[in-house]
Amino acid sequence: MDYTLLKRACVGIFIAGVVIALGTVSEKAEAPSSSPQQTAAAATEAGEFPVAWEDIGRRLVLLGVLDESMFRRIYGGQDEALDPRIEGLLSGSDARGIGMGADTANETLTLLWAFGLANESVVLRDGPMGDPRYGGPMRFASTGGWTLARGAVEDHYNKHALVTLTDGETELLKRVAANVYRPCCNNPTLFPDCNHGMAMLGLLELLIAGGATEDELYAYALAANALWFPDVYDMLLAYAKQAADHGTILTARDLVGREYASADGVARVREKLSSVPTPGGTGCSL
């Protein structure tokens, strides 16, 4: 992925290899306040997401949300050897935040999926996942497709208080989750019906618990989306450069929003660009 495309166009921050701008879209590129950029840039120089993961991986295993042996067989190959950072996240021996790069994007996606599915959340309790017209929350790819639990998925869905948010943090979560989309469908994170949506929900909850600001949440969401859908974001960054050449700066919020990051939004962008391959990404299953 050519992440230099936006360097000339945006006054932004560097997060996991993604140069982005903070704030709202504007006709002029105005520098945002320094604190959010410095905080996020320092925390993510090597693809680091500043979350208090601590022993969550070990707790997911002990609770039965995640079958460790199955996880190892999927991602460790015949010898079940995992990347050292993933090993640390799984065992609870790594006190740093989540390190997510291109080589471990799938593993971290699955760990965040497990956390997002299991953690008690107002999004799962009161959001679209529980809407009776859909036939119950177990009918979605993010729940019915979770095959790494010991026992029934419904025994873990929205059942474990792994991370608790304050009322104010919960309102921030709902607001940002309603505005963060994924290219595999047209649903926001507020409706986490696939693995990417559930993983993003988990990531946002962890980031908010760690004190991330609203601008930073959109920046980290963009970084995660770019890792999970690299081909799509090659295209979106190319489009963002084109927009910047015409005087409009697209922000992190724009590039994870419905207009650009939903399946329909990606299709519209593709139509506007010439000679751009059809983008792909990781599938919505294990």
SSE order and pairing:
Layout: E1 12-15, E2 18-21, H1 34-43, E3 48-49, H2 56-63, H3 68-76, H4 84-91, E4 98-99, H5 105-118, H6 122-126, H7 141-144, H8 167-177, H9 195-209, H10 214-228, H11 230-245, H12 252-256, H13 258-261, H14 263-272
Antiparallel strand pairs: 1-2, 3-4
Short synopsis of the structure:
With 286 residues, the protein is mostly helical. It has helices at 34-43, 56-63, 68-76, 84-91, 105-118, 122-126, 141-144, 167-177, 195-209, 214-228, 230-245, 252-256, 258-261, 263-272, and strands at residues 12-15, 18-21, 48-49, 98-99. The chain has a two-stranded antiparallel ribbon with strand order 1-2. A two-stranded antiparallel ribbon has the order 3-4.
Can you walk through the features of this model?
The protein is mostly helical and about 290 residues long. It has 14 helices and four strands. The chain has one domain. It has a two-stranded antiparallel ribbon. A two-stranded antiparallel sheet has the order 3-4. A hairpin with a 2-residue loop joins β1 and β2 (about 20). α5 crosses α9 (about 195-210), α8 (about 165-175) packs antiparallel against α9 and α10 crosses α11 (about 230-245).
